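URGENT: need a sanity check before tomorrow's submission.

F., can you look over the Two-component system, NarL family, sensor histidine kinase DesK record below? I want to be sure the sequence and structure line up before it goes out.
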Amino acid sequence: MLERDQIIPSNDCPTRPRAQAPPAGEAWRKSTGSARVLRYVSLLYTCFFFIEPYYRHSLTHWLWFAAFYVVFLGLYFGITESRGRTQQILFVLMFALGYAYFPFNQSASGAFVFPIVMLAFVLRSTRTYLYLLAATIMGIVLETWLFHLAWWACGTGVFFCIVVGLSNLSYSRQQQATYMLKQANEEIEHLAQVAERERIARDLHDLLGHTLTVIAIKSELANRLLEIDPQRAKQEMIDVEQTARKALAEVREAVVGYRSEGFPAEVMNARRTLQSAGVALSTDLEPADLTPPETNVLCLCLREAITNIVRHAHATTCHISLARNVQGLALTVHDNGVGSRALEGNGLRGMRERVEGLQGKMRMTPAVDGGNSLCVELPTAKPIEKIALSQQETHA
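Structure tokens as predicted:
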């Protein structure tokens, strides 16, 4: 398995991750628990090494085999745990060990397969790998001819070097492509977040720059008119209050004003995401005229729900429904994956806060037939300014 290692910042954005290939040999040095188990399982193929010593019935042959096997295991695990020049030296020694022992134990031709397989995950250049594979095969054939070895042993070694080697080469390149795609998606997501922060910063600057200037001027004028013309000063303070309330509503609208392509487009994005994860999507969407705040909240909730399904649910099907009734809107996302009662993370917490910001409710419950069911309910939308005023009066 190829793993993430480093994030190299670019010059134009110090914190932006750049998609890059994982360091050579990192797949063998750092692995998940299943990959480490696979290393030991692969050693089952060394059982063929025991065939010739068994039939020779020679203690000397068994001693030489024991010495070979100990060195072989040391090199094998050394390669999986090392990197750089040390790893290169161990590869050379492993090939040399195979060529040195092959004439004495022709059933050990599989010793060439192990370094060939590991090189598929270590070398970044496919051409270099193919050259080394060809050189290994030529070496086996040449050694068989020089020492008059059995051609069946030569054929066995060559066959498995080609088949297993190329299979693992294909798999490793697929893993590299998956890794690069994941890195690219993370970079795109990061750039989108940066763009959204910049948008909010620009909107707040445009909104508050003018509004705060007006408030400052009117407050200063009211202070000067307080003794000269109290009625005029009172009117100026009323204007200041109205301007502040309007600014509050505009700030709320700017912050939640997520510029999306709309809920249908978000559903299409969800379909593509689920399809790439092998999850079948079905929908039941009633036509509904959504206000910008509703679109913002529903799009972000749907995106977070799909992300949780892909990352944690291990689901095979997902159903999305959207309906509007007298009380308001109801979005439901149901999957047949692994039900969870885990603590609410940042994503769900942020989702709940957005929903409650529109006086709505959110429920995440395990479904009766397995999986999870997310329900988001939004009341009939009220103008943002009225919401802001009612909240201000509540705190007063």
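My own read: The domain at 197-256 is CATH 1.20.5.1930 (Single alpha-helices involved in coiled-coils or other helix-helix interfaces). Residues 1-19, 27-32, 382-396 have pLDDT under 50 and may be disordered. If you see anything odd, call me.
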